[in-house]
Each structure stands twice: as C-alpha cells, then as structure tokens.
Amino acid sequence: MGTLLIVVIGGIGSIILLLHLTGRSRKRELTPEDARTAWHRHFPEDQIHDVIVSRDGHSGLVTTDQGPGLIWSFGADTAARHLRNFDFVEKTNGQAIRFHDFTAPRVDLHLAEPELDRWRQIMGLA
Amino acid sequence: MTGTLDYPDVVQMAVPLFIALILAEFLWIALRRRAGRYETRDALTSLILGAGSIVEGIVLGFVAWGFFMALWAITPLDLGTSVWVVVLCFVLDDLRYYWVHRFGHRIRWVWASHVNHHSSQHYNLTTALRQTWTGTFTFMMIVRAPLILLGFHPAMVLFVGGLNLIYQFWIHTEAIGKLPRWFEAVMNTPSHHRVHHGRNPRYLDANYAGVFIIWDKLFGTFVPEYEGEKPDYGLVQNLGTFNTLRVVFHEWVGLFRDVTQPGLTARQRVSYAFGPPGYSHDGSRDTSQDIKAKHLARHPEDAGTPGFE
Fold this sequence. Notes:
The complex is a heterodimer.
Chain A: H1 2-21, H2 32-42, E1 48-53, E2 59-64, E3 67-74, E4 77-82, E5 86-91, E6 94-99, E7 106-109, H3 115-122
Antiparallel strand pairs in A: 1-2, 2-3, 3-4, 5-6, 6-7
Chain B: H1 10-32, H2 40-74, H3 83-106, H4 108-118, H5 125-128, H6 145-149, H7 154-169, H8 181-186, H9 190-197, H10 214-219, H11 244-260, H12 266-274, H13 288-298
C-alpha cells in the first residue's frame, strides 16, 4: 500500500510538472470570432447578435436572443453560461461573476475602464 | 463448492503502467505531432479522480464483496475455476458491463456517478482514469448478481471486471486512428470510444461497450466514427470548474435539488431521480433524444448519417 501511494503521488506529480513545464497550463485566448464559435458550441440554438472580448482575451460577453451570456477561458478550452442568475462583484484586482451554479461557481474577470463600463451596461448593471 | 479464491488486484497492479503510458502518450503527441491534447488542470483533476476512485474501492469494496459472497452462499451452482470458465466469465461480465454502462447514461441516478468520467473536454489517457468516487451508491452491483448465482465465484467476477477496466485504458486516446477492420468489427477501440465520449448530437448515447463492440451492434446502440464530424468531448453543458469535489458531486447535488423542489408530483420526483438525464417536469431541459431532434430540425441534411439513422 505504501509503495502504491508513492507511485501514485510521484506519478501524478511527474505528469503535472511535465505538462506545466511544456506550456500546457496556458489559458486559451479568445478573439471575437473564437468566442462566437465557442458560444455556438455550447449553445447551438442561440442567435448571436454581438460579441465583445475582454482585453486580456480570457472572457467574452455574448449578446444573444436568449439575453447576454459569458464565455470564458477554461484552461485550454472554454466554458459558457447565460447571465441569468448571477452577482457581479468588484474586487481589488478585478471583478468576479458569481453564478448560482454548482458547476460554474465563479469566473474572475480583469476588466479595466472603459471596457468595464461597457460590460456593465450589456449585463444590465449600469 | 469452491472455497476461498484469490486473484490479484490487477487494477492496482496496473497503476505504474498507466503512469508510464500517460507519459508515453504525451511525448508521442508532443514530439510526433499525433492527434490529441493535454492541459494541466484538466489532467490533474482526472488523475485526482482516478486516485480517489481507487481509495473508494478500498474503503467501500466490502459492501459489494459482502453482497456477492451472500449470493455465493445461496447458489447451488459452482462452475469451478478452469481457464475456460474464466474466459466465459470475462465475456459474460463484458455483457454485464455493457448494460451497466447503458444504465449509466439513461438513468439519472447512475449517470450522477458516471458523469464524472465524461466531464473532461479532453480525450487522452488521463481521461481514462477520471473515474467515479460514488459508484457504490448506484447499486449497480446488483447487475453482477446473475453471474454469481450462475456459479462464477465472486473473486473471479471481480478479477475479470478488473481486466475489463484495464483493457479500456488504452482506448482513451486520439493518438490512435482506426485499426484494421477485423479488429474494429469485434473489439472496442479508440475510434469507437471517441464516439462514446462525443457530446455531438449524433454521438450521444452510443457505443457503451467495455471490451467487445459486438454488444452495441446486437442491441442497436452502435455508431461509427464519422469522417465528416470529429467528436467534441465533454458534457452537453460543460463544467466551469476544475474543483475535484464539485466535479465528483455536481450531478448528485443537481439531482437532489430537482427531486426536493416544491410543487412536484411523486411521479415527477421519481422521474428526476431515475428518468433519463435531461428530464424536466416543465420541458425546460433537453434529453439526448430532444438534442438529436433539435439538431436534425436545424440540419435536415444530417438525416440518415451515422447517429441519425
């Protein structure tokens, strides 16, 4: 049992270190076209009216026929949720969107003026 | 009656091999530019789930073992332990696996355990280890009961089950394309299992096989990998967290919340627990059947193609 534990911990550690050192920890960067395609991957029935992407490229605000939605970098991939039941929280180093969703509890944003104002407007917070 | 029987715990023995093959797959993808992707946090979540799954087996294994030995005590049948009996047991246990796996996709109570395995947006050998911590609570051990009552010793049943899981490790890869036709015709392969992990409408609820793909062909759930559409991995609604505990328990939490919400009939509550994933009392969600139908409504040209036949 002790040997198995060492093998497991050592093995996991080695794999993760190798992945990190070879750049596999990089977060996906989105362009508006990426965000549009990615949104359709998550919500194929939505009609997209507009897409804006944050300056850091790690999140996008999508305006759809179902209302606004957030798409964000999730490791090398994306995750997305409609902005229906959420809190927008200002932090010292950015903002956070808290979905009331066990499967997507929080997304950290790093929006600076003037994009922050625009995002607040689209999210209906202005 | 066969008394105490001991087989090695082959899954635990295979752990060093799993680690070595993951490293080999990663290097093969990185250096030889094979298909496939790795991402650090996704891989870490998968590996932690794998380790936790082994712990769950050690801690809670006595539940299934006790149940199986109780059945063994009452059956008058004992097929013995010859090689041919082991082979037969392996084949019948694979048939058992097919049905448990099918239940795992069609009954939300069982899906709540199995969903973890499908929750990665990647498909590589770490995904193979992304296993449930809550399998005991699905009570799917009951599906093994006929094997024991037919006279296969519980230790043998668990042994061949372990071999079955080890076989399935290597098929969790994009780095291997289609294999020779004779092999693809009978065995579960990376191609067949990529389909199973696909969240594309055409690939939903297909290819439940463990080792032999013949069960899917027999029971009408086979879909070949379609050259016109690469599998897209993950869940219909992908998770937005790498947190291990949220990954493990999210569907159980959702199930509990749905079943206990006010204003439902008893039938609706039971349907939330045991109906297909995506069932909703008010039509606000989609089952996989709904997803396929909506896709065809948007893309009628796909009618008659794999997954829409």
